[in-house]
Design brief:
Elements: E1 3-9, H1 13-23, E2 31-37, E3 42-48, H2 51-57, E4 68-74, E5 89-90, E6 96-104, H3 107-116, H4 127-137, H5 142-152, E7 155-163, E8 170-175, E9 180-183, E10 187-191, E11 203-206, E12 211-216, E13 219-223, E14 229-230, E15 235-236, H6 252-258, H7 260-268, E16 272-273, E17 276-277, H8 286-290, E18 294-299, H9 301-318, E19 322-326, H10 327-330, E20 341-347, H11 353-364, E21 368-373, H12 379-383, E22 386-389, H13 402-421, H14 427-449, H15 451-460, E23 466-471, H16 474-490, E24 493-498, E25 515-520, H17 526-537, E26 542-548, H18 554-557, E27 560-564, H19 573-590
This protein binds 6-O-phosphono-alpha-D-glucopyranose (G6P).
């Protein structure tokens, strides 16, 4: 989703802004722009399309001299992608420039009021309202004007602001949209995400809701909405910039798929001591674990899919009822959150607007909340009662792979911990489960090394129109993910169905040559799914099967079989996902799609 960068210091700002924006490209965007104070005026350049266009337009920033500036990559919400709707936005006389992430919900009302006062709008964006509103309240003190605006706008925002009257300063402010600031060797920086400024500093300040920052070349001052100065603690970023670079791989997605064995190990190992599972961050006593009556797993996208798997695993192992829900539904449906309910929010970014809102709903209802989050210090991580971090490292490709795999691990650990504490599994059984978990990284590696077979198969299906994924139990959960992965990066229509549900409608879509990918990793369900495979095959489907090495029977029905090594039936998704990721990846690149930055999608969906 949109990205923000800001710089004020002793170096030329424009190249630093362009460089920072490039690091945020992965978040998804459709246009980009920068504004730089040239000593007299604020100059602005913006353009629809890739950042490359903006770089060419400004000769890599050389035609925009100045040591203070703000930049933005936009993912359209209000107003179509266009040069004029791209950020930054000016007030009437171009003396204030604003970049904005988020959505101003009451912008219609504010725009009407401002227009009645004579403001002329150039764009269709909600952001332009902020620029005009700042102008309206500005009486020489930027801080006072910003605080005033904050009292009037509703919605979410992270803003970077330049005032022509205050050339030695830039301002940053946020509510419900991530923003960080930091000080580098030559100046101060703003960013919506760490990779944009990691080259310049490792010490960053996470801006909290309704906090304002005044940045000068050598100082950072923090204020609350009442304009009182406040103290903030910095955070040191532990990971290296190389973690956010391709490191020789053709695409981030491929690199991140290959990082899965390590990511899984890093998430698993610190929580295993001998044959015990220790999740100190859980912050729950055994008594509290025993008193859990119900678990909600709430998330979006692939994180939601891990929740669907976790439902089978937690209910199966710990015998606690689990409801899995899309955050966008949960937040508005007034769910029954009674005593003994634990709400688990799963999120890679920790900033997904719906997941964050769902977390707040749960907190407001007074139930215990737990985040399973990848980005350290993100909003969900900070606001949940407790957080289990998935140590996947920075994930750049829009389509998640390694974060997904680590979320599964965190959920398995939770299931096993609860199962043992509640007496549902014995010490010996736990030891067996742990042994199988520890084998996963190696098994994942094995599957990754088998990629040419999948690549060959994928190349035959580049022209597919529809693909169906079917499975039962956890195989249904992985079908959801396999289908999403394929459609999001290859733009081929695909659907996932619980295999037994096919004949209630979807089977009518099967035609001669339609690709159906069947996942069968649950021994007791092999026969059931195989009869569904026969049903589609007899209607002309071409069948791909992903199954366990011992299920050679599948070859009798399927046209192509991919085997996964044997593991505990609860953990098979960690393995079955690998060929499905590889399949989606190779179809995507075979079709010439932008695999890391698929159209219309964003890495972190920070607006509703
Ligand atoms: C976007 C991403 C998905 C991700 C989903 C939830 O749609 O493209 O890959 O699964 O958001 O994101 P989160 O950061 O909350 O896991």
């Amino acid at each position: 989703m949109c990205g923000i960068v800001g710089y004020i210091g002793t170096e030329q700002a424009a190249p630093i802004l362009l460089d920072g924006l490039e690091k945020l490209e992965y978040r998804g965007y459709d246009s980009a722009g920068i504004a730089v104070f040239d000593g007299e005026n604020i100059q602005m350049k913006k353009s629809i399309g890739r950042l490359k266009v903006l770089s060419e337009l400004t000769h890599d920033g050389a035609t925009m001299p100045g040591i203070a500036g703000i930049g933005h990559t936009r993912w359209a919400t209000h107003g179509a992608p266009s040069d004029v709707n791209a950020h930054p936005h000016f007030n009437g006389d171009a003396s204030i420039a604003v970049v904005h992430n988020g959505i101003i919900e009451n912008y219609g009302k504010l725009k009407k009021k401002l227009m009645s006062k004579g403001c002329e709008f150039r764009s269709e964006t909600d952001t332009e309202v902020v620029a005009h509103l700042l102008d309206y309240y500005y009486k020489g003190d930027p801080l006072a004007a910003i605080a005033h605006v904050m009292h009037h706008v509703e919605g979410s925002y992270a803003l970077g602001i330049l005032f022509q009257d205050h050339p030695g300063e830039i301002y940053a402010v946020r509510k419900d949209s991530p923003l960080i600031v930091g000080k580098g060797k030559t100046g101060s920086l703003i960013a919506s995400d760490v990779p944009a400024i990691l080259k310049y500093t490792r010490t960053v300040y996470f801006i909290e809701n309704e906090e304002i920052v005044r940045l000068t070349a050598d100082s950072l001052n923090f204020y609350n909405i009442d304009e009182e100065e406040i103290e903030k603690e910095p955070t040191t970023i532990e990971w290296d910039i190389s973690a956010a670079e391709k490191g020789g791989y053709e695409h981030f997605m491929l690199k991140e798929m290959y990082e899965q064995p390590k990511a899984v190990t890093d998430t698993l190992n610190p929580r295993i001591r001998g044959n015990q599972i220790l999740i100190e961050e859980l912050g729950m006593t055994d008594e509290e674990i025993r008193s859990v009556k119900k678990i909600f797993i709430v998330a979006c996208g692939s994180a939601y899919h891990t929740g669907v798997t976790a439902k089978y695993v937690i209910e199966g192992l710990a015998r606690i009822p689990v409801e899995v829900e899309l955050a966008s539904e949960f937040r508005y449906r007034n769910p029954i959150l009674s005593e003994g309910t634990l709400v688990v929010i799963v999120s890679q970014s920790g900033e997904t607007a719906d997941s964050l809102a769902a977390l707040r709903e749960a907190k407001a209802a007074g139930v215990r909340t737990l985040g399973i989050v990848n980005v350290v210090g993100s909003s969900i991580a900070r606001e949940a009662d407790n957080v289990i971090y998935t140590w996947a490292g920075p994930e750049i490709a829009v389509a998640t792979t390694k974060a997904y795999s680590t979320q599964l691990i965190a959920e398995y650990l939770l299931a096993l911990k609860f199962a043992r504490v509640r007496g549902q599994i014995t010490e010996d059984e736990l030891a067996d489960y742990i042994r199988d978990l520890k084998r996963l990284p190696q098994q994942i590696e094995l599957l990754l090394n088998n990629k040419t077979k999948i690549q060959r198969f994928a190349n035959r299906y580049l022209a597919a129109r529809d693909v169906f994924f079917i499975g039962r139990g956890v195989d249904y959960a992985i079908s959801l993910e396999g289908s999403l992965k394929l459609k999001e990066i290859s733009y081929i229509h695909s659907e996932a169905y619980a295999a037994g549900e096919l004949k209630h409608g979807t089977i009518s879509l099967i035609e001669e040559g339609t690709l159906v990918a069947a996942v069968l990793t649950q021994e007791e369900l092999y026969k059931k799914t195989m009869s569904n495979m026969v049903e589609v095959k007899s209607r002309g489907a071409f069948l791909l099967a992903v199954t366990n090495t011992d299920n050679v029977e599948a070859e009798k029905i399927a046209d192509y079989v991919i085997y996964i090594p044997k593991t505990n039936p609860y953990f098979t998704n960690s393995l079955a996902v690998i060929p499905l990721q590889l399949f989606a990846y190779y179809v995507s690149i075979g079709r010439g799609c932008d695999v890391d930055k698929p159209r219309n999608l964003a890495k972190s969906v920070t607006v509703e």
